[in-house]
Amino acid sequence: MTQGFDIQRVEAITGMSSWTIKRWVKKAKERGFNPEIDQRILTEYVEDDPRPGRPKEITQSTEDSIVSSIRKDHAGHS
């Protein structure tokens, strides 16, 4: 890749397809990524866009509580 990234190496490290990597780099560039200035790809360059559809009906606190209880073993210990 012309940005200084070896796509095969990135594929091997991440396990992602070259198509996915190219799509992420394209998205990052559209959001301000400039590898000539800084080669770090920041989270805001590649984070997911808001998803369409019905919003969640539970609060983040409730969701966190549910996830926490699921992660505990069957004896109730984390």
From TrEMBL:
Residues 58-68 have a biased composition (Polar residues). Residues 44-78 are annotated as: Disordered. Residues 48-57 have a biased composition (Basic and acidic residues). This is Uncharacterized protein.
